[in-house]
């Protein structure tokens, strides 16, 4: 991949596709416009030059013929009438100068000589001074000297309004290029946003399938992919639910048979293993269903009462769960999903810290932060994100009482995303872990 050009710390090639296409299109149109302008200007210059020379030849030849036929006494009165903007006639020898002419002046002099013919031989000299100027010296039929003082001018003087037209054309090119890039890139940007926020279980609008054929085809393919992903997720939940349902009966039978057996160490271990299997199956299904947390209808709840009720439930069973600052007020959320999130976080705090404290803060930006704090050993900084992954356990032993199934935090994270919240973990100063949920 070619690296972008950089000159003195300034990036010459833009990063975004929109800017790159804009630069390419604008440069192409500007160059094409400049080429067209150059061709038209050249054609006009050649045509105007040809007309000017033809006019110059005819006018000079006619004017000298008139002067030659006039009486000598009347010639001076006609000089101003016969002169033009680029030349004038002077009776007399004129001003001496340099016989070497510039290429353009030599061409004009040659045209004058051709127009006059052999009857009036001329001597041309360049006159020193500012600008282009030369004089053609000749003698009329009666021997009187006549000088043609020529001051060549530009073939095509530029109109005062022409720069404004060019600026307007450039602005039009920029505007059209920007509009073209906007129309070309907008479907790509919409597709990128749809991919970035892809959630088959949400009720977000489907990608519009209108527009040019290629854009509509891409949108249709994306929507079809989204539907397939949603179908696969739904099938996963149904499969896990079916497995859970099918396993419940044999697990229950095995537990009944184990409980009816004689008391022994093996009987106790067997019952514990069956309890672990049953819990693992239930939590696996709960994790699969947590992605569908948006199926629950949102309702308005009083967050302080909700938190206190949850804490009282734990306190009734003798668990060390306390309530700190409560500043939430009423919020719109999915209460069952939120309760499951908090339950998992409190259970995690009780397991590793022995106690849990819940606090609620309403921030200035309108978000609500719910924190579950514990006084446990915390989590190594490098593993704060890893513990959110399914089946990841800091305790690598096979003991479910210390290591768990590795799904509690994963379920909480999945449900938080489903209800539009965010879940983060951080180590507290002085020890312990803080699990923070931010509700928007």
Automatic annotation (TrEMBL):
Annotated ranges, domain Histidine kinase: 242-440
GO molecular function: ATP binding
Enzyme Commission number(s) of this protein: 2.7.13.3
PROSITE patterns in UniProt: HAMP, HIS_KIN
InterPro entries with a match to the protein in the record: 2C_sensor_his_kinase, HAMP_dom, HATPase_C_sf, HATPase_dom, His_kinase_dom, HisK_dim/P_dom, HisK_dim/P_sf, Sig_transdc_His_kin-like_C
Location of the HAMP domain: 182-234
Gene3D superfamilies (UniProt xref): 1.10.287.130, Histidine kinase-like ATPase, C-terminal domain
Primary localization: membrane
Topology with respect to the bilayer: Multi-pass membrane protein
Xref: SUPFAM superfamilies: ATPase domain of HSP90 chaperone/DNA topoisomerase II/histidine kinase, Homodimeric domain of signal transducing histidine kinase
Keyword set, alphabetical order: ATP-binding, Cell inner membrane, Cell membrane, Kinase, Membrane, Nucleotide-binding, Phosphoprotein, Plasmid, Transferase, Transmembrane, Transmembrane helix, Two-component regulatory system
Subcellular location as annotated: Cell inner membrane
Catalytic activity: ATP + protein L-histidine = ADP + protein N-phospho-L-histidine
Transmembrane segments: 21-42
PANTHER family: SENSOR HISTIDINE KINASE ENVZ (PTHR44936:SF5), SENSOR PROTEIN CREC (PTHR44936)
Protein's recorded name: histidine kinase
Organism placement in taxonomy: Bacteria, Pseudomonadati, Pseudomonadota, Alphaproteobacteria, Hyphomicrobiales
């Amino acid at each position: 991949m070619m690296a972008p050009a950089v000159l003195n710390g300034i990036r010459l090639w833009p990063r975004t596709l929109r800017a790159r296409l804009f630069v390419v299109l604008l440069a192409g149109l500007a160059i094409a416009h400049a080429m067209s302008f150059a061709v038209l200007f050249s054609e006009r210059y050649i045509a105007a030059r040809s007309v000017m020379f033809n006019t110059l030849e005819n006018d000079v030849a006619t004017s000298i013929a008139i002067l030659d036929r006039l009486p000598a006494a009347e010639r001076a009165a006609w000089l101003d009438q016969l002169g033009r903007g680029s030349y004038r006639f002077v009776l007399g020898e004129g001003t001496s100068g340099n016989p070497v002419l510039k290429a353009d002046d030599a061409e004009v002099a040659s045209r004058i000589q051709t127009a006059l013919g052999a009857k009036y031989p001329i001597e041309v000299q360049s006159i020193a001074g500012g600008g282009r100027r030369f004089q053609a010296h000749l003698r009329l039929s009666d021997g009187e000297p006549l000088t043609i003082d020529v001051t060549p001018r530009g073939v095509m003087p530029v109109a005062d309004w022409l720069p404004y037209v060019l600026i307007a054309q450039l602005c039009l090119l920029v505007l059209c290029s920007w509009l073209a890039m906007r129309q070309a890139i907008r479907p790509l940007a919409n597709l990128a946003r749809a991919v970035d926020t892809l959630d088959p279980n949400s009720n977000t609008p489907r990608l519009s399938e209108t527009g040019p054929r290629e854009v509509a085809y891409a949108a249709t393919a994306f929507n079809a992919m989204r539907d397939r992903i949603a179908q696969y997720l739904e099938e996963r939940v149904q499969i896990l639910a079916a497995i859970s349902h099918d396993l419940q009966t044999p697990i229950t039978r095995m537990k009944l048979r184990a409980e009816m057996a004689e008391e022994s160490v093996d009987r106790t271990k067997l019952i514990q293993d069956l309890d672990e299997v049953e819990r693992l199956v239930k939590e696996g299904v709960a994790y699969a269903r947590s992605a569908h947390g948006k199926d629950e209808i949102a309702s308005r709840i009083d967050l302080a009462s909700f938190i206190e009720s949850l804490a009282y439930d734990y306190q009734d069973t003798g668990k060390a769960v306390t309530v700190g600052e409560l500043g939430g007020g009423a919020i719109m959320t999915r209460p069952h999903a939120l309760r499951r999130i908090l339950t998992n976080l409190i259970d995690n705090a009780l397991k590793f810290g022995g106690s849990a404290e819940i606090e609620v803060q309403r921030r200035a930006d309108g978000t609500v932060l719910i924190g579950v704090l514990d006084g446990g050993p915390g989590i190594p900084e490098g593993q704060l994100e890893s513990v959110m992954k399914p089946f990841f356990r800091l305790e690598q032993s096979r003991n479910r009482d210390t290591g768990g199934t590795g799904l509690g935090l994963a379920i909480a994270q999945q449900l938080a995303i489903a209800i539009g919240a965010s879940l983060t973990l951080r180590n507290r100063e002085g020890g312990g872990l803080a699990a923070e949920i931010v509700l928007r």
